[in-house]
Write a structure and sequence with these properties.
The chain is mostly beta strands. Helices cover 9% and strands 31% of the residues. The protein binds the ligand Nc1nc2c(c(=O)[nH]1)N[C@H]1C(S)=C(S)[C@@H](COP(=O)(O)O)O[C@H]1N2 and molybdenum atom.
């Protein structure tokens, strides 16, 4: 199996592999606003909506039939820990965007999740190979507490930009703020600029 290594993306942001103010850990702490939601593989549905040519809805079997990629990525939590060399497998954001056909007036994206969480990013920050809808971590099913069945990972941003238990992506023609972005976390979340709070 081939693994794409994206752990050098810090170079694009002019910083060290370990962003300022972060401490490396080999653990994988769990941070959830309200516990781990249940899901049912029979009724689970993932939707792509908004400013797209074709709105999409996937069952679990349909989603896991999409072509996948395995990447080695770093994970930076806004609370100060970073975990290096996480191996995530899943579907890239650009690939999903291509399937839906993004309309010319789309500028922003809102992710939604089974626990009511939301998070937002500019479209350009999503149309990157390393933004993955991932369902495998280290060759195993993604653990439920880390967002299984499906989560987003955003190694170029603090990890709150990656929705665990993601079940929807909406393409927006105007920016909006998600759960933590409305509650004082940075809207931009660049770890190499320490954009933690706003
Ligand atoms: N659906 C959902 N996604 C979420 C969260 C959440 O509470 N609900 N917490 C965010 C925050 S603040 C962080 S730091 C990471 C933590 O991911 P982890 O629990 O796998 O370490 O998930 C992010 N995604
Ligand atoms: Mo967080």
């Amino acid at each position: 199996m081939s693994v794409t290594d994206v752990t050098d993306l810090h170079e694009e942001f002019g910083g060290d592999r370990l962003p300022p103010g972060q401490r490396e850990t080999s653990k994988f702490p769990v941070l959830s606003k309200s516990g781990t939601p249940d899901w049912d593989p029979e009724t689970w549905e993932f939707t792509v909506t908004g400013a797209v040519e074709e709105e999409l809805a996937f069952s679990w079997d349909e989603f896991t039939d999409l072509p996948t990629e395995t990447q080695r990525q770093d994970f930076h939590c806004v609370t100060g820990w970073s975990k290096f060399d996480c191996e995530f497998a899943g579907v890239t954001f650009p690939q999903l965007a291509e399937l839906a056909g993004v309309e010319a007036d789309a500028v922003h994206v809102m992710f939604s999740a089974l626990d009511g969480y939301t998070t937002n990013l500019p479209l350009d920050d999503c149309l990157r190979e390393e933004v993955l809808f991932t369902y495998e971590f280290g060759g195993e099913s993604l653990p439920a507490e880390h967002g299984g069945p499906l989560r987003v990972v955003t190694p170029h941003k603090y990890a709150y930009k990656g929705a665990k238990w993601v079940d929807g992506v909406e393409f927006l023609t105007d920016p909006e703020r998600g759960y933590w972005e409305k509650r004082g976390y940075s809207n931009t979340a660049n770890p190499w600029n320490e954009e933690r709070y706003s």
